[in-house]
Design goal:
It is a single chain. The chain is 40% helix and 17% strand. The protein has eight helices and seven strands. Strands 3-2-4-1-5-6-7 form a seven-stranded parallel beta sheet, sandwiched between helices. Bound molecules: guanosine-5'-diphosphate (GDP) and magnesium ion. Residues 41, 43-49, 124, 168-169, 171-172, 200-202 line the site of guanosine-5'-diphosphate (GDP). Guanosine-5'-diphosphate (GDP) binds next to helix 2.
């Protein structure tokens, strides 16, 4: 066996182990009636800023919480904790993505039945997080207007494994000459059915629509498993 073959085999085993853990997590989330949404993007695309806004807005009607992953520092968890929502930081060290077992450990002391929506902010990275199922129901890829319209073409897997694309920092679109048509073409060429939101978490533009979408997703998840969510009208 060549070293290369061995590396591939070990990687496949790791992914399989993650898939099993993710499947168990998904069952737990569904049983508890909590809608779980993960966020992926490049570093700095605005995941934490979006979450700060979303926890504040959605938190008015739903019981929200967040788990946030980073290589180092708990800066994001501190920012998010200001919302008053329960927040857990996962510090991954050298690991460039979250894994299902890390999420499982981070939420070990939470009673999931007491939550309506749980957000998971993945490590900022457009490659590795695409391969790791975290048991989420919805994966959102954020893509800021400053990144270059061709990023979906360069990193297709992170886009075609997501359920929704959010174009962030729309307040900067004119300043950086953002080419909206080119960005949409890139996104739809790797994921033809992808729904797209445009917003600015800084100015609030588009955040009402985003919050409404989130509320409707929560309602849809509850309808999908009504017997599990009967205590959360
Ligand atoms: N102008 C503008 N800046 C933003 C917006 N969203 C995030 N930022 C800024 O972009 C930087 C990175 O945001 P952050 O939420 O930490 O990104 P993350 O690494 O994806 O979590 C911070 O300085 C944010 O204040 C936005 O909608 N408009
Ligand atoms: Mg962040």
């Amino acid at each position: 066996m060549t070293p290369q073959t061995r590396i591939v085999q070990v990687r496949q085993q790791l992914l399989k182990r993650n898939d099993l853990a993710a499947r168990a997590l998904r069952r737990r989330f569904e049983h508890a009636g909590v809608l779980v949404i993960s966020l992926v993007s490049s570093p700095g695309a605005g995941k934490t800023k979006w979450l700060e806004e979303m926890l504040a807005r959605l938190g008015q009607t739903q019981r929200v919480a967040a788990v946030v992953g980073d290589l180092a520092t708990d800066n994001d968890a501190q920012r998010l904790a200001r919302s008053g929502a329960p927040v857990r930081q996962i510090t991954t060290g050298a690991v460039c993505h979250l894994e299902a077992e890390m999420v499982e450990q981070a939420i070990a002391n939470w009673t999931l039945e007491e939550l309506d929506v749980l957000f998971i902010e993945n490590v900022g990275n457009l490659v590795c997080p695409a391969s790791y199922d975290l048991g989420e129901r919805i994966r959102i890829v954020l893509f800021s207007v400053t990144e270059g319209e061709d990023k979906p073409l360069k990193y297709p897997t992170i886009f075609n494994t997501a359920d929704l694309c959010v174009i962030t920092k729309i307040d900067l679109a004119d300043a950086v000459g953002f080419d909206r048509a080119a960005a949409y073409r890139s996104i739809h060429s790797v994921s033809p059915q992808m729904e797209i939101f445009e917003l600015s978490a800084k100015t609030g533009k588009g955040m009402d629509e985003m919050t409404e979408w989130m509320t409707s997703q929560r309602a849809a998840a509850a309808t999908a498993a009504p017997e599990l969510t009967a205590t959360h009208p």
